Amino acid sequence: MALALDERIAQHKKSKYFRICANFETKYKMSSEIFLKKFDSGQLDDRDDFFDWYAAKKSLDSWSNKLEILSGISL
Between the N and C ends of the chain, which has fewer C-beta atoms within 10 Å? Predict the structure, then answer.
């Protein structure tokens, strides 16, 4: 029961951060993967959107990983 709740929460969070990243991808016309490479290499400026996008992408990756782990647990 607790695992099912954790899985639903992880799915909700993953969807939330996916939508945020998708909005930034549309706005800046680049994928989140390309954005991360450019951000990490210092090719982008210091606008707030880029820090928000970075945080959203890292959160998306983290929740995706948690969801994958939770989905693989069987009792």
Answer: C
How many Å apart are CA 66 and CA 73, to the nearest integer? 11
DSSP 29: T
Q: Which residue is listed with tokens 């820090």?
A: 51
All structural domains of the chain with their residue ranges: 2-71
The token pair at 55 is 């945080």
At residue 43 the predicted structure's pLDDT band, cuts being 50, 70 and 90, is very high
Q: Which of 48, 51, 56, 68 is nearest to 7 (CA)?
A: 68
User: What pTM was estimated for this model as a whole?
Assistant: 0.89
Instruction: For residues 75 and 72, give the distance between their C-alpha atoms in angstroms, rounded to a whole number.
Output: 10
Alpha helices in 1-75 (DSSP H): 2-28, 32-40, 48-71
